[in-house]
Amino acid sequence: MSTVEEVYEGEVTRKVTRRTSFKIEETSSTTKTSTMTTAAKLYGKDLTEYDEIDVDQLLSQLSPEEISMLVKEVDPDDTLLPPSQRCSYECQKSPTGPLDRKKLIEHINKQALETPDQPELKPYVPGTIRGKKWIPPPPPLKMQEAEEQIAIDLGDEYEQALSDATQEEIIDLAAILGFHSMMNQDQYHASLLNKGQPVGLGWDGITKATQPKAFPADPPNDTDVDKTLQMVKDNSHELTTLNWNNIKNISDEKFSTLFSALKENTQLETLNLVNVGLGDRHGLKLAEALEKNSTLKVLNVETNFLTPQVILRLVKALLVQRSLEEFRGANQRRYVLGNKIEMEITKLVEENPTLLRLGLHLEYNDARQRIATHLQRNIDRILHHHEKPPKEFHPEYIELPPADSVLDQLLAKKKPLIGKTQQRIIEKLKDIPDDVADALSEEGIGNLSRRSSAIVFHPTEMKSE
Q1: Distance from C-alpha of 199 to C-alpha of 197, rounded to nearest angstrom
Q2: Residue 184 DSSP code
Q3: Which of its termini does the chain have fewer beta carbons within 10 Å around, N or C?
Q4: How far are the Cα atoms of 232, 269, 313 from residue 281, in angstroms, in the given order?
């Protein structure tokens, strides 16, 4: 259905509605896909007619002058050609002599200085502004209202103090209040350390890079490997700390000998094997040695080539003797241990009551928190054990009231005896008749038992006031 509008003279408009029907016949057909390519053009001309022309034949028909003109207009995109052949500039002058680079530069500079400058259309006058000066547009009305609302009245006393303060004092005040973005790093640290502000640095001062301090390099490790290894084998009491850090090219036989001797050694307390090229094979031997050594306190195997599985094996070996207090094994070949290994290490550490320090890189917060809590608990238990020695209780030094007065008070109150130290009182009572003991038992106050000449009182009911 379609609607047609017809306009006649006299501004008369009418709408004519026509109904049109179509009959569609379906026929089966095969679909063919054809790819159309756009012909190459140069300056709007079709180049397909030149596809079958031989280029070498065209070049043979050109004269030398035409070939030179063609070479000047065409830039060969070939990096193997020297620049003299790729450049279109050709100098027809004959060389005056060998190239002297220094004289050439002096000649160019002299020619540049002697060449007069091109005259300006308007002569330069100092102090005059040429062109239109840029004037920033006024801020929006909303920003002006916001700035007016931020204004704070500090009072006459504070206004006078701030108005009379110097720039250095205001910078110190900003540093104390924590306005880091208003100053540079040197000003901030100078304010905190009360060193005085650097000279020449204001609000817009530029902090120059400080010269780094040159620290001397660490001296090489001069430990005699063979001598110390023999001392470990002999179980010498003079060697309590073995430091092989940063010693290169230690043979596998020496590592095997060291870990074998460590099983029987009872004098060594600290073993440092940092950056010595320790591998998994040596790490497993070290774990076997830790299971038999009971005197080692500190073990450091950082910066080696141990895999997470061997690190787990070492931590597990600490549970056998439970004598090691510090273990460090970070910065290995695989920096990340993985969630599974970290959780297993966490469980093993929580079962170790003697480990105080652990040097491992843990990625997950749960493992870090649980290990830190357990290590702190171990440290607190040891400190509590050293600071508060157990008190010895000597009942023979306790002065007790007469036995008759104590029994009279118990019978009168008919309440269980309540002590101040967890209801545990030992009294030496002598010569108590059997009828008095039976009376105490019947009243439900306690049970009396004779042991030699002493009576031990056990309250039957525990109550705290």
Answers
A1: 6
A2: -
A3: C
A4: 21, 23, 12
The sign of the dihedral angle between the CA atoms of 150, 153, 159, 165 is negative
> What does each C-alpha distance from 260 to 39, 85, 234, 424, 463 come to in angstroms?
83, 75, 12, 53, 61
Q: How far apart are CA 282 and CA 258, in angstroms?
A: 10
In this structure, what token pair is assigned to residue 93? 């002058």
pLDDT digits (tens, 9 = 90+) for 453-465: 333 344 444 333 3
Strands 357-359 and 446-451: unpaired
DSSP annotation of 455: E
What is the distance between the alpha carbons of residues 191 and 201, in angstroms, rounded to a whole number? 13
Q: For residue 212, what are its two tokens? A: 């780094």
Q: Which two tokens stand for residue 152?
A: 């704070």
Distance from C-alpha of 241 to C-alpha of 457, rounded to nearest angstrom: 56
The arrangement of strands across the sheet holding 241-243 comes to: 241-243, 270-272, 298-300, 326-328, 357-359
Of 268, 276, 272, 311, residue with least CA distance to 292? 268
Give the pLDDT confidence of 268-326 residue by residue, as tens digits.
999 999 999 999 999 999 999 999 999 999 999 999 999 999 999 999 999 999 999 99
**DSSP type of residue 359:** E
Average pLDDT over residues 24-44: 52
Poorest-pLDDT segment among 121-130, 151-160, 339-348: 151-160
The span from the CA of 108 to the CA of 92, in Å, is: 20
Cα–Cα separations (whole angstroms), residue 340 to 191, 366, 367, 417, 439: 48, 12, 11, 56, 67
H helix runs in 26-95, sequence order: 55-60, 64-73, 83-86
Contact 453, 459 (CB under 8 A): no
Q: Give the pLDDT band (50/70/90) at residue 87.
A: confident
Question: What does the block give as tokens for 308?
Answer: 């997470």
Side-chain half-sphere of 83: how many Cα atoms within 13 Å? Answer: 0
Output the pTM of the full model: 0.44
Reply yes or no on whether the pLDDT at 16 is more than 50. Answer: no
Mapping DSSP to helix (H, G, I), strand (E, B) and coil, where does residue 168 land? helix
In whole angstroms, what is the distance from residue 183 CA to residue 375 CA?
42
Half-sphere exposure of 57 (CA within 13 A, CB side): 4
- Name residue, tokens 């480990």: 355
